[in-house]
Write a structure and sequence with these properties.
Layout: E1 3-6, E2 19-22, E3 26-29, H1 30-43, H2 45-48, H3 53-76, H4 89-103, H5 108-123, H6 129-140, H7 146-157, E4 162-163, H8 169-176, H9 178-183, H10 189-197, E5 201-203, H11 213-220, E6 229-230, H12 231-240, E7 256-258, E8 265-268, H13 273-282, H14 289-298, H15 304-314, H16 318-325, H17 328-331, E9 333-335, H18 337-351, E10 365-366
Parallel strand pairs: 4-10
Antiparallel strand pairs: 1-2, 2-3, 5-9, 6-8, 7-8
Helix pairs in contact: 1-3, 3-5, 4-5, 5-6, 6-18, 7-10, 7-18, 11-15
């Protein structure tokens, strides 16, 4: 990554000094950059004693990339002040594992995950339970490959829920998962064993195994995965109940959208009944709920087979993904909190959805 010195400064309090500018966007005071670089080298001093001269030089280049990428993310999130925590002994211990994972990893996506986990660690208190989970995550992430990380992300999808007022965005969400879905055909039993051994999973006891992924989608997107309606049907219904066309969100739109340019067929705008009804109550529009229930009766839910066909029309490799998620080995195997954290991080990265805190992992993600 090319860096050049200019008379510009964003991060740092020293006036009229040279600064390093990164990608023409983020500038860092030269002294601050050098101080952080020296701190990181000192944290790795014992490790460097075992490195060759060339390996040390390569590691220092990686550290410069690490600092650059870290500052880009912190500035984007307006969290530059978190750098002040680098002097905390607990953070320095965490930094050591972070740096070892970063400089030893050749996968750029995994390097990005490592920095994201460090930022999460900088945001929390030393005495929190989240600290222990992040300590485990930063040690595990560098050892994951595309198969094991995709397996964890896929298993997390069985609990993942996105919330949107525009359900057509769900198709975009499913498309964005393609890098994970494409790997699913190469995942095998050794990948499952690996994530079990590394405490990413827990066994589900009792007589209720995990549901099929298709049925999970039917439950969570019970307005989206329904048969389409015709314009004639909607017009007849609205003649009797004109309130069905009222605005139901802050975007000023109704609860329907047409799926074709001729406006002959429609679907519900919302994807999830529960979240939709919650918003209607908040808007004091409870009177619409019985009408939605009446319309739902005329538009049956998809079958599980139809859900899989829908996914396979987006990407044929969804067939592999669904078979994997529904296989006997995973039927009584769920993600631990560590696995859920890593899985959500991976999904957030590929779909550009907001990242949740560890304590909020079960909350819906807003598209």
């Amino acid at each position: 990554m090319q860096m050049k010195k200019i008379r510009k400064q964003i991060i740092g309090d020293i006036n009229n000094t040279n600064a390093i500018i990164i990608n023409g966007d983020v500038s860092i005071d030269q002294q601050i950059f050098d101080n952080i670089q020296n701190l990181l080298i000192e944290i790795l001093r014992k490790d460097f004693e075992r490195f060759s001269a060339d390996a040390i030089n390569n590691a220092k280049d990686e550290l410069n990339k690490f600092i650059t990428s870290l500052f880009e993310k912190l500035v984007k999130d307006q969290q530059e002040q978190l750098i002040e925590k680098f002097n905390n002994p607990s953070i320095q211990v965490f930094l050591h594992d972070t740096l070892i994972g970063y400089i030893s990893n050749e996968d750029e996506i995994m390097k990005e995950f490592i920095i994201d986990i460090l930022i999460d660690r900088l945001k929390i208190d030393n005495n929190s339970t989240e600290k222990a989970i992040l300590n485990e995550a930063i040690k595990l992430i560098p050892n994951l490959n595309m198969s094991t990380s995709s397996l964890i992300a896929l298993m997390n999808l069985r609990h993942y829920v996105v919330s949107t007022n525009h359900s057509f965005m769900l198709e975009s969400f499913f498309r964005q998962l393609s890098p994970i879905i494409n790997i699913s055909c190469n995942i095998n039993k050794i990948d499952i064993e690996y994530i079990i051994e590394n405490k990413c999973t827990k066994t589900i006891s009792g007589i209720f195994p995990i549901d099929t992924y298709e049925n999970h989608l039917l439950k969570q997107y019970d307005l989206y995965f329904r048969q389409i309606g015709t314009r004639e049907e909607l017009e007849k219904f609205s003649e009797i109940h004109p309130e069905i066309m009222h605005q139901v969100n802050n975007d000023g739109t109704s609860m329907f959208y047409y799926i074709d340019s001729e406006m002959n067929y429609w679907k519900f705008s919302d994807a999830n009944c529960k979240l939709f009804y919650k918003r209607l109550r908040e808007r004091q529009q409870e009177y619409i709920i019985p009408l939605v229930e009446e319309l739902k009766k005329t538009k049956p839910l998809f079958t599980e087979k139809q859900v899989r066909e829908y996914l396979c029309n987006i990407n044929q490799n969804w067939e592999c993904a669904c078979k994997l998620l529904n296989c006997l080995e995973l039927k009584t195997l769920d993600l631990s909190i560590l696995g859920s954290y890593i899985g959500s991080k991976i999904i957030n990265k590929f779909t550009n959805t907001p990242s949740l805190s560890i304590s909020s992992l079960s909350n819906p993600i807003a598209l």
